[in-house]
Write a structure and sequence with these properties.
Chain lengths: 177, 177
DNA sequence: TTAGGCATGTAAGGCGTTACATGATTAA
DNA sequence: TTAATCATGTAACGCCTTACATGCCTAA
């Protein structure tokens, strides 16, 4: 799902500034995708150029403590565009795992390095689990709840696996050399 | 993990042509990453230019039924490079899920479209599960076995979830409108 | 004879990251 | 006063995909 379309989806629920969208994506929606400022601001400007969103400058006095904030709102044209774009989406899921690649080639690592990788992954997973558990479960749609639960089940399975077989592999890899 | 380094890792075990590496990655190693020809061939040429791999042309008579095949072998320099590169790898894992993004925004989909997405994802997962189960479990390293088992546990968890909660959500989303 | 696998490669373009550039406000 | 947060943006570059270009061999 392109960042442009994803932003439209976010603006469908509420008006946001670019900075706020960045925060929403990288905190509340981190299980769906990530987005850097360098990708986000040009995306929003493209959307505005196409008439899918409109912006309103909010001066410093009104927005508490910030300056030159630009709040975006989705237009009718944007709403229509989003509805046609989301229908094109397939059920694809792309995993790019440096973790697994490293383990696949772990012959070239010391058992210490393997242990560190597993511990690191475990820590990341537990952090993600805490984040997901803290998310609100009310006032969100069934689909949003579903995405959170699905990710939680994936994260939980990964944690269980690493706590079980992950600990065992360190010894096996050690013995192999 | 960059494709260049990944290819070195593959050539560490055995000599391959570009075409063969493409097949290995997209079938046996599909749980780690993907690679298109457009990315692969330039990567191999870069590696050769840097002296990390060497190539030998195999004429049509020897290679059964193919023509102008170019078989690559890793050099000592390449082996050294791989060992330093793999140590730099972190336990990062990036999931980019169109499936979850679509479900997050499923307010804008009909219950039929949601059902189709879930069924599609389920079919993909089951296909991936069959692929993983068919992979050899002997004659591979502990690390390789680990990567397969880890992915299998993730795939199994996703299938269980979709078969359970996935079926339930279709009714809930229907009721919501 | 035609579809599919084997085989190598280029070109254009998409989509993103990191780093840079700037500057105000606020809390420790 | 210094670090953090708020706030917007550009430039360079990385890494990949899709589509194109070519051609041979094999089995249905």
């Amino acid at each position: 799902m392109k960042l442009d379309v994803f932003c439209l989806g976010i603006l469908l629920q509420q008006n946001y500034s670019g900075y706020e969208i960045h925060r929403v994506i990288n905190t509340a929606l981190a299980h769906l995708r990530q987005a850097s400022f360098g990708a986000l601001y040009p995306a929003l400007n493209r959307l505005q150029a196409k008439g899918f969103i409109s912006s309103e400058a909010v001066p410093a006095e009104i927005s508490n403590g910030s300056l030159g904030k630009k709040v975006f709102a989705i237009t009718d044209k944007g709403r229509a565009h989003f509805k046609t774009e989301i229908k094109k989406i397939t059920a694809a899921e792309m995993v790019n795992s440096d973790f697994l690649s490293a383990l696949h080639f772990s012959n070239n690592l010391t058992s210490n390095e393997v242990s560190t990788l597993i511990d690191e992954r475990l820590a990341d997973l537990q952090k993600e689990q805490r984040r997901l558990l803290k998310l609100p479960s009310t006032d969100i749609s069934e689909g949003q709840r579903f995405a959170i639960r699905y990710t939680l089940s994936q994260v939980s399975a990964a944690i269980s696996f690493l706590k079980g077989e992950g600990k065992a592999i360190q010894l096996l890899i050690q013995r192999q050399r």
